[in-house]
Amino acid sequence: MAVDVFIHPTAVVDEGAVLGAGAKVWHFTHVCGGAEIGEGSNLGQNVYVAPTARLGRNVKVQNNVAIYDGVEIGDDAFCGPSMVFTNVMTPRSHVSRRHEYLKTRVGRGATIGANATVVCGHDLGEYAFVGAGAVVTKDVPAYALVVGVPARQIGWACACGVRLDLDADGPRAEIACTSCGAKYIREDGQLRPKE
């Protein structure tokens, strides 16, 4: 185990779990053997991390989140309180589907709001922003802002988290964040930082 790791006395961290330096594991959380938690990541109260789950550096997981097998979370991502990951498309209690777990990838810097659900088998691009209570049923592009049930894109979000005011028509548009000044280009239905 790395240095400066904090594990609350009520938490359970199984042998074989890998926790990076500065990681914090809070009340009633269970990290299974084989799980990987990156440096500086923070697991809130009542979090479950399955054996094949992978979390990057500085990931924030709020209370009451289960990170199941097949979930990979990139650096600097945020999982809001009581958000939900799934891992099987057609669950039945009497049918074992452990061999059907689908991968879910959360890109670097992405945010998943409180009580949102991410249906398995979908990717959230880097710095994507999923609003509270949304249900993600398809891939979410990088920097996309999605809300609703099912989640639909209503705009774009800066890496700093602020909604971008991007109303320009046409195949290409440029925008600067009103909060941090970062500049972006929208082209071919995608948003990318301006170099």
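Next protein, fold it too.
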Amino acid sequence: MNDRIRILLAEDQEIVRQGLRYIIEAQPDMLVVGEAADGNDAVRLAFSAQPEVILMDIRMPGRTGIEATRDILQSRPGTRIILLTTFDIQEYVYDGIRAGAVGYLLKDAETQTLLESIRAAQRGAVIYRSESSRQALSKILGNENGIGMPGDTLPPLVEPLTDREQEILQQMAYGLRNSEIASLLSISEGTVKTHIHRILQKFQVEDRTQAVVIALRQQIVH
């Protein structure tokens, strides 16, 4: 099938990679196109295998997952990277957002959560949605413990968001699809698309993931 989601596994533990491959390749809509055992291999395979989604371990030899994410997205900004970690540490969420990752999952996440996260990432959603990452993200965006999110390096809004655009942007941050947002807000899907188009224009970005990441950094959404 040519329409399967192309996935790269970047994980230094072979047994973990094997487990992920087994789970993913049992799905009719997913395909593992490569495996990387360290950060350097992850960067190389991101170009040669051309994955749509990368499951990226944070702690790897060579380059860390955060460093590899930053390097990959500088040249392949359309790649969706989900960070995987055993460690529930606030700074990892913060660094992941700064690097451009669209998701953060603990390695003990349920199989269905993992699969849904891959599908959500591929369609452009931001998926910092596990309980642990949500708590860490909330603390970071709340600027607790002196952790700052400098906004001066981010593009300013061309004009302020309307109340409806703010509402839709928040649902985008939750990972909802256009049809789900339309149903939730009792408006047409076409109206949702129009609002999203205006949101992207105001953020001066090309896709919804970029808009949500900037909004998270600037504390426009939570």
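About the second fold: The mean pLDDT is 82.
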